[in-house]
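Limitations

Structures in this collection are predictions, not experimental determinations, and the ligand pose is part of the prediction. Treat each record accordingly. The example that follows, with heme C as the small molecule, is included so readers can see exactly what is and is not provided: the inputs are given verbatim, and the output is the predicted complex.
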Amino acid sequence: MKILHPPTVLLALLLAASACSDAAEPEAEAGPPVRPDTLPTEIQAEVESRGSAAADALAQGLVGRLAEAIDEQGTVGAVDFCSAEAMELTRDIAEDHDASLELKRTTTRWRNPDNAPDEAEARVLEYLEALEAREPGSAPAALTAAGPDGSPRFYRALRTAPMCLQCHGAEADLDPEVRRILEARYPEDRAVGYSEGEFRGVIRVSFPADSASP
Ligand code: HEC
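Predicted complex:
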């Protein structure tokens, strides 16, 4: 009889629970998480340096504006800022930084359905989440992978800082007013229940398809 290692069993349970998959299909035989398609080596370095500069500009821009909004209007007011401006700010920062790149924030546990992942993004998120499920903190901070049509993509992992928990922490810990607004505005909200340092999702940077041919 085969003895299953506890982490393997745990991973299988997590995968089964998150995928709502048929319990009759055992996941325990799955090997290590499969890394999504890599890019041709000639373009790796450029995708990494331009991608991480754009992702950092967005992360810093959003966190800066969010901190300002919380300071000026409190957490409840800052929810309005996020709802009303985060998407537009994401587009603006992308355009200001490098108009040939497209930026998106995406996660399997989205609050705003417009941020749900496409197929290629979902594969990257599943890979990073599988690594996290095996060992929390082990997902790499950055990853390059092929998008649709082989177009290059850069991904920056996002983790929750203490400030994020005001709106993404355990439901019981949220300010009741914040919770009320979130429930009213995002009836299918999946983005609560996080603790500090948890993998929250990614910033995805897309390059034009022709940058795949050196
Ligand atoms: C004041 C409340 C508030 C705080 C604080 C906050 N968020 Fe959010 N977050 C939101 C709202 C509202 C949305 C949905 C609107 C949008 O941004 O598209 C959201 C969306 C997101 C998304 C896009 C994916 C999705 O779920 O739709 C990510 C990623 C994210 N937040 C990460 C973070 C991180 C990381 C922090 C801490 C640095 C943080 N948030 C702090 C309210 C907040």
